[in-house]
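Sanity check

After download, print the first record. It should look like this:
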Amino acid sequence: MTHAAHLKTLLEAPRPEHFTPDFLAQVKFEQLQPYLAGLQTRYGAIREVQLADEEGFWTVNAERGQYQVLARLNDALQITSLRIPTPSMPSLQAKVLFGALWALPLILLGTVVRSWAVQTRLEWLTTLVPSVMFISAFLATLVWAQASTYLRPLFWLCLAAVFASAVRLPALPTGSLDLWSSLFALGVSLAFGRLLLEGLKGRRAPGQLVTLGPVLAGGAFMVGQGGSTSTVNYHVDHPTMRYAVDLIGVGPLGRHARGHLPADPARYAIFGAQVLAPLVMLQV
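Expected structure tokens:
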């Protein structure tokens, strides 16, 4: 069987023996299967696989389009490395998530109003704790440039306003706990408290650091995915890219792009930025 025919078989009906043990030690077969199945769903049955260049890039012609994979095989026709196109987020899902980011300030303002409107100390407490966990979790984990970096100060102001409502406590009666409100407050606090802890843990710098120079020039940039937990860096779950960092350009309005997921690369703030060598090795 030729390399092209073997790769076609692998993409259509993958089995663990198609991969080397070293490959499967880094990427579990169960993790890979859904992505390969997704390619078939997206592009349909494979008609032909052709070698695009000597570096291991292959062109796959399918029923509903063409895509490329990077695949290297050993003499036993086992995959030693593989990179395939990953599906992008559906447009509707992306729009819903984007809208949710802009809806958050309204939720925050409602939280502030409620913290100043409660009638008892216990009601204030069951409002304060989940509100603080909710706001703090987003401060620790949100990628701000997807909406606007100018939302971050608003979060801090809302957090301060919630704490400031404590000035009303001396004039309020103690009151009594409502069972369902208390259970709801506990559930929200635990859920967002865990998110907050994972976010803070992921952003904590390790003891030993390597000092690097700037990576990009020609604009303002922020880390989109980076850190030591999957909450703030999805790369952590993949051993081969555990230390990867995604950088995002930030435009004048605090956003990463002009428009919502534009197709034109020039509309992204990072477009045209100069890529620099962050570490220069000197040979003596």
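If your output differs, re-run the checksum step. Summary of this record's structure: Strands lie at 46-51, 57-62, 65-73, 79-83, 216-217, 220-225, 246-250, 274-275.
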